[in-house]
Amino acid sequence: MSQAELAWRCRRGRLELDLLLHGYLERVYPQAPPAEQARFRRLLDLPDPLLWRYLSGETPVEDAELAELLGKIRSALKARP
């Protein structure tokens, strides 16, 4: 999947989600290992309400690899210049 296609899939209609997902896509995704890139693409398949609950910490994530990715997504926004 191209960077442009991923950017389109990151458009969620909720500003908070858009900022978080695009921040990760721009800053981290290009250098991320293939397995992490695959997790990110799978994450984009989640419905917006669940994705927001995961990213906001409202719903705990039991999958350790997914939890790590969600932490990186949150951190990517904080690293914005």
From TrEMBL:
PANTHER family: FAD ASSEMBLY FACTOR SDHE. The lineage of its organism: Bacteria, Pseudomonadati, Pseudomonadota, Gammaproteobacteria, Methylococcales. This is FAD assembly factor SdhE. The keyword Chaperone applies. It is found in: Cytoplasm. It comes from the Bacteria. Keywords: Chaperone, Cytoplasm. Gene3D superfamilies: Flavinator of succinate dehydrogenase. Belongs to the SdhE FAD assembly factor family.
